[in-house]
Design brief:
By secondary structure, this protein is mainly alpha-helical. The chain is about 70% helix and about 5% strand. Keywords: Cell membrane, Ion channel, Ion transport, Membrane, Transmembrane, Transmembrane helix, Transport.
Length: about 140
Amino acid sequence: MIKGFREFITKGNVIDLAVAVVIGAAFAAVINAFVEAIINPLVGAFVPSGDLAKWTIDFPGIFATAHLGIGAIISALITFLATALVVYFVLVLPMNRYKERRAAKLAAGVVEEEPALPSEQELLVQIRDLLEKPRS
């Protein structure tokens, strides 16, 4: 069981996923700040309370009045749409274009060759040259 867990953790996909989650959280914070500092005040200028997040609709009840936070819901929707829009144009669209170009190259028979790695002897010569170079 431990061996299987170790293999799962050491796979590159898990590490890539962890990096994506961390970057996604930071990215969400930037989008939230943008929406809260710029978009919500602009929209808030057109609501009765003057602040979108504090805009409520009063719903009279039997014993008390309920304050429905319609502004908070609209603010969350704007944040979601802004995040989705930026993710689409910054990540999804360029990746789709890259995949289309790559598929077109493969369909045309163009094979991308990876650059050849230096041989062991070439690496040793480079290391020797670096070690012989005077330090500045």
